[in-house]
Amino acid sequence: MKLVEVEGSHTMQTTYSSLDVHLGQSYSVLLTADQPGFDYAVVVSTRFTTRIISSTAVLHYANSAGKAPGPLPGGPTIQIDWSLNQARSIRWNLTASGPRPNPQGSYHYGLVPVTRTIRLANSAATINGKQRYAVNSVSYVSPDTPLKVADYYKIGGVFSVGTIADNPSYGGAYLQTSVMGANYRDYVEIVFENSEDEVQSWHIDGYAFWVVGMDGGKWSAASRQGYNLRDGVSRYTVQVYPRSWTAIYMPLDNVGMWNVRSESWARQYLGQQFYLRVWTPSTSLRDEFPIPKNALLCGRAAGRRTRPL
């Protein structure tokens, strides 16, 4: 499989015989049918799970002489280093889709000064006798009014900015409608830390970001020495391996109330998510459009009139 694209980014065309695809991710590969005429097996298996679930498809040549000789492809490994090395080998193709060596032009993600570092640690917890999941010890609960609507109409009592910290406390988890405040045009470093024994997958609404580093163990400031600040892939969803960390760079160039969440539906539903409020005092339509006139309002905003465009 020759990898050519990852979530909208052209990649270096590296060939893989096995490829990790995590929750919420997409890949485009090219397959050259240049082998002898047989039926070949394509195997998909879960990785890093106690129970391995596999499914097999058949790549059938028109002149097939039957099943291809030899055993089926081997099952998935549980070697985190193998997967980390593969993930780090996926790099942006800087010569694709442009006539110049650097299609980023004068903007390069690795040269922009970082204005803020946010560390996010996932955890499992029991709260009030029930299974919950948390980010920086906060397990998200949905309010009675959509957060963006409450923010737009300045409705108090729905949420408070700053109800989730920039760094993990590693204390006991608790329930909260968690909202983190951020300034429009900031350039942030976000480090996802996973101390659990299962792979995590994270998505940030409204943004693409550059994956600059990932490794096993605990993240520290010294970890930045191994960052890829030249040709990291721009993504929307990123994996964090067991007892490992993943770091991203992201420009906050999109005003709004954006969901940061686990792509595991069970974890997301049970609290492993929060909202990032990217705010500016400007009321210019250049930065953000108002709520449409025909928006359906609910909760504490029911009965209010939308503001004219």
Automatic annotation (TrEMBL):
A single GO molecular function term of this UniProt record: oxidoreductase activity
Q: Which family does it belong to?
A: Belongs to the multicopper oxidase family.
**Gene source species:** Panicum miliaceum
This protein's name? L-ascorbate oxidase
Q: Which PANTHER family does the UniProt record give? A: MULTI-COPPER OXIDASE, OS07G0510900 PROTEIN
Chain ranges of the Plastocyanin-like domain: 1-63, 144-281
Please name the InterPro entries in this protein's record: Cu-oxidase_2nd, Cu-oxidase_C, Cu-oxidase_fam, Cupredoxin
Pfam families associated with the record: Cu-oxidase, Cu-oxidase_2
Superkingdom of the source species:
Eukaryota
